[in-house]
Write a structure and sequence with these properties.
There is one protein chain. The chain has about 170 residues and is mostly helical. The protein has one domain. It is about 65% helix and about 0% strand. It is built from eight helices and no strands. Helix 1 packs antiparallel against helix 3, helix 3 packs across helix 5 and helix 4 packs antiparallel against helix 5. The longest helix has 25 residues. The chain starts with a helix and ends with a helix.
Length: about 170
């Protein structure tokens, strides 16, 4: 999971589009958008890499499917129509952004599950179960410049800019 990349890039796109489409701010809750941007990993990593590590051995399963995002989206539309509640709709949008940021189109068997088969591709690494968690913890404290680090750096930059903007507005109100 690339925490800052998923959060920062999703918020950056949302606030960027919000400049041109101000109505977005009324139909999407940024807090739930952030949770949605992490939701596929929050579901799939523990399930596929830890709990079912010996059988599934993949951190991109049900939560990384288009079906999952569409299901949440339809639930969100229903709740928005019934109660004007934007929370689940915001989760769905964040979840969809997560799929785009993970470039899931490169793994169509997962993205279009179950249309292309019921089994998820198995990841053939030795890093499953507790070893996966240890490796992820080590990697989170080790900086190495790579192509996957770019979204993290951009995400951190967006989070810093948004935080400073919030702080400046907050200080201006006092």
């Amino acid at each position: 999971m690339f925490l800052f990349g998923h959060i920062g890039v999703t918020l950056g796109v949302f606030f960027g589009l919000g400049i041109f489409i101000p109505r977005l701010k009324t139909i999407i809750d940024p807090k739930y958008l952030v949770i949605g941007a992490l939701l596929p990993d929050l579901i799939d990593k523990p399930l596929g890499r830890v709990i079912f590590a010996s059988t599934i051995a993949n951190g991109r399963i049900v939560g990384h499917t288009l079906l999952f995002s569409i299901f949440i989206f339809l639930m969100g539309l229903y709740l928005y129509e019934k109660r004007r509640d934007v929370r689940v709709f915001s989760l769905a949008i964040g979840s969809f952004f997560h799929l785009m940021e993970d470039q899931m189109w490169k793994t169509p068997k997962t993205l279009f599950w179950p249309l292309l088969g019921l089994r998820f591709p198995k990841d053939y690494t030795d890093n499953s179960g507790i070893w996966y968690l240890i490796r992820e913890l080590e990697n989170s404290f080790t900086f190495h410049l790579s192509q996957s680090a770019i979204p993290e750096i951009v995400g951190m930059g967006v989070i810093v800019i948004l935080s400073l903007n919030w702080l400046i507005k907050r200080l201006g109100q006092t």
